[in-house]
């Protein structure tokens, strides 16, 4: 029972922090707001996370660990099943991110939080993401380079950067094309993935 309560408190703090960071940003959210939303005291936050910086990192970790694992599994499958083909590699990068964005349990808040991370230029968070998830991007860069051998390293990373930006925009579902009436969220997400993969493939191959 104690272990369940322990996990529940930590999970409530993470959920509250994710919502508040998405709404007010990292600098605009205080630990007092987090404790109020999570219905815990400041000692609980300090016990589980130690600092606001660590709390920010852990909010990202609980989504990024899952997304990174899905991406790498899909990438390995793409390389094994479709060697030398670019589109399956891009699908392995795009589809897990869009799936997490559609998660009913905080997916939308996570997307807004990612946008906040871009806007606020949080150096500590960027170091954390680079240290813990940079290897995922490097694996994709290596796979894309093998599929499109004519690209220079500089061209490769420019285009990967543009792909990441376009993917974040697609995750936010903030574009001109909205989900039509009668089309399910899953079908709309699949269409978004197909179009983004086609667009990105043309960019890498040009």
Automatic annotation (TrEMBL):
Top-rank taxon: Bacteria
HTH tetR-type domain residues: 7-67
Protein name: TetR family transcriptional regulator
PANTHER family: HTH-TYPE TRANSCRIPTIONAL REGULATOR RUTR, TRANSCRIPTIONAL REGULATORY PROTEIN
The entry's DNA-binding region: 30-49
Record's keyword terms, sorted: DNA-binding
Organism whose genome encodes this protein: Marilutibacter maris
InterPro entries: DNA-bd_HTH_TetR-type_CS, Homeodomain-like_sf, HTH-type_TetR-like_transc_reg, HTH_TetR, PsrA_TetR_C, Tet_transcr_reg_TetR-rel_C_sf
Record PROSITE patterns: HTH_TETR_1, HTH_TETR_2
Gene3D superfamilies tied to this protein: Tetracycline Repressor, domain 2 (1.10.357.10)
